[in-house]
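To illustrate the input format used throughout this study, we show a single complete record. The first block contains the structure-token representation of the backbone; no residue identities are included at this stage. The design step must infer an amino acid for every position from geometry alone.
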């Protein structure tokens, strides 16, 4: 049973880290876009 629990824990940790890196990448992309828009507005103003 312990081996199964460890495997489950490992897979959930792997899934969580994958999800976190996915969110981070998504967030970074959005921030870059936002920065681009802000720079664009700075040029206009």
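Output of the design step:
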């Amino acid at each position: 049973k312990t081996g199964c629990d460890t495997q489950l824990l490992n897979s959930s940790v792997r899934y969580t880290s994958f999800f976190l890196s996915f969110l981070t990448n998504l967030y970074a992309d959005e921030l870059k876009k936002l920065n681009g828009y802000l720079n664009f507005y700075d040029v206009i103003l």
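Structural context for interpreting the output: Helices lie at 2-44. The radius of gyration is 19 Å.
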